[in-house]
Structure formats: C-alpha cells, structure tokens
Design brief:
single chain; alpha+beta; 3-stranded antiparallel beta sheet; 12 strands
Length: 192
Amino acid sequence: MSVTEQLKERSGSKCELCSATDDLRVYEVPPVSTGGLDGSLLGCPTCIGQIENPDTTDSNHWRCLNDSIWNEHEAVKVVAWRMLHRLKSEGWPQDLLEMIYLEEDTLKWAQAMGEGEDADDVIIHRDVNGVVLQNGDSVVLIKDLKVKGSSMVAKQGTAVRRISVDRENAEYIEGKVGAQQIVIITKYVKKI
C-alpha cells in the first residue's frame, strides 16, 4: 500500500488540518528526510499552499487548528504548532498554543524550521548571491568541493535537493550528494 493510500485511510480521505476533501496530496513535514507515513500528512491545496508560502496565509482558514491540535499523529501536531506560532500575533492562536502538548522529540521537530523564534534570534542563511536559503530548498554547487574525512569530491554543478539549514550557524547547510549526507558552506552554493 502506498503512503498516499495509507494517509487516505488514516485520515478518512480528508485534509488532516482542515477536513477538506478535494485535491488531497501528501505533504512531507520538513525537515524530515525519511518522509513516509510518520513524517507526512494528507493536505488540501489551500493548507499546503499557505504552509509553503507564508505571504498567502489567511488566518481565518486556520481556525480549523482548534481540532487539529488534538490529532494523534505527530506530523499533524507539528504543522498545527508551526501555524499557530506563525499566527500568534492574531491573538486567538495563543490560547491553542497553551493547550497543545508535544513530546520533547516532537517539539524539537516542530521548532526545527524556526517557527516561534523571535525575529532577532533567527539565523538567516544566504547563498553566494545573497538569496535566502530555507529547509527544503534546492541548490547547485558553484565549485568543486572536497568532502572532509572522505576521498569524495563534490563537483561544480552538482544539484543538492531538499537541504537542511544549520540552526546554529548561518554559513552551514546540509544535503545529500550522491548517497552521502554532507555539510556545505553557503558561499559555495547557488539556489535553484
């Protein structure tokens, strides 16, 4: 059974955030590298579009989180927590944030994307051209890079998909080159 079929069965063929039933698709909750059933949720285009593009967020749409915060699946709770933090200036999400409970590992997963941090504390990663890099972006190497602790050389022009940013250092990102997960310095990449 595919992940899509398993998620449809788990959710009753409804968006796990707002209960919409049209055009549902799998959304892998970043920065999970494995995805799969535990790292994904079934979402509608409205929810997924607003999650991926914060500029289009309609706060009234997210009042559905009143139900979603009680979902038994961690991926759904993680997205609910992130959206509530994104919207907390609206007032009403603060009450829901006080009610939601996340295990320690789940909370770390929810915080991994930087939601809920003060703007002054957020570390911004930029590529060689100054373009902001975020978890899940794709980049291309602009020069050959020797991989420390290995005889491997990552060649110029290699695409690195679904990067993860280092929350402690603005110069480091992680990504897979071939089968190996490596740390890359941001001044050697260009966002694609």
